[in-house]
Design brief:
A hairpin with a 5-residue loop joins strand 4 and strand 5. The chain is of the alpha/beta class and 259 residues long. Helix content is 41%, strand content 17%. The structure holds zinc ion (ZN).
């Protein structure tokens, strides 16, 4: 692919870059967005039944809410679903696009990955500065007191409980209707507002508030580069639209700039 010379030159001199990544960046690894994974045994459930606080809620007050919202309350089902997904993710490796982003971090003094993916592949590829807007499927925490844990019992009957307070353990991911972790979101907004180049990679550009980050960057004068298989609502506003797979385009871009 021929890249615009201006973009290559800019990448050579810039110090601040932010890159937002979405499902497309992970799909090239053979996995596994929430909806892609939800096949076979899990296909019969509504996404809300597998990933919402109402469905998991251990509290009576929320139980009544769950009845009115039409969401089945079954914390064990949710725990099993995430246990299954966690195992599936373990067999997945970062793709060439992830490794290219890790390479870019070596060349740019302030490089921030902002990801909507929960699979942890960016860190696995070697990126240090990663903001996880939707959490990380490999982390488990208490639903009551927020204590993180690395180990839990393997009871097949019920959801494992927190050793500190007895609350139910849950994956540290953002469910439908939950707000994003504030520290990660604030850092993402800051990185977007201060960067000189903003990449939007493999994301549909419609899920808020992540989608607004590109506009925040653009309004502050950043050059916006979109890498995606298909055009999105962001495309007409982007300075550059590089159409294709990030696993192919990013390694070529790294070669063109620093090779
Ligand atoms: Zn607890």
């Amino acid at each position: 692919m021929d890249f615009p010379l201006k973009l290559i030159q800019l990448l050579r001199i810039t110090n601040r870059v932010a890159a937002l990544t979405g499902a497309g960046a992970s799909q090239e690894s053979g996995l596994r967005t929430f909806r892609d994974s939800q096949a076979g045994l899990w296909a019969q459930y509504k996404p809300e039944d597998l990933a919402s606080p109402q469905a998991f809620a251990p509290l009576v007050s929320l139980e009544s809410f769950s009845e009115t919202s039409g969401v089945a309350r079954d914390p064990k089902l949710i725990w099993d679903w995430y246990a299954w997904w966690r195992e599936a993710v373990k067999g997945v490796r970062p793709n060439a696009g992830h490794y290219a982003l890790a390479e870019i971090e070596k060349h740019i003094s302030e490089f921030t990955i902002i990801t909507q993916n929960v699979d942890g592949l960016h860190r696995m590829a070697g990126n240090q500065n990663v903001l996880e807007l939707h959490g990380n499927i490999q982390r488990v925490r208490c639903s009551e007191c927020y204590t993180f844990t690395e180990t839990w019992g393997d009871d097949t009957e019920s959801v494992p409980q927190c050793e500190v307070c007895g609350g139910l353990l849950r994956p540290d991911v953002v469910w439908f209707g939950e707000s994003l972790p504030r520290d990660q979101l604030e850092a993402a907004v800051e990185a977007s507002r201060t960067c000189e180049i903003f990449f939007s990679i493999g994301t549909s550009g419609v899920v808020q508030p992540a989608a607004s980050l590109a506009y925040a960057a653009r309004n502050r004068g950043a050059v916006v580069v979109e890498i995606n298989a298909e055009a999105t609502p962001l495309t007409p506003k982007a300075d550059y639209f590089l159409q294709g797979k990030s696993g192919e385009i990013l390694p070529e871009l790294v070669k063109a700039v620093w090779g």
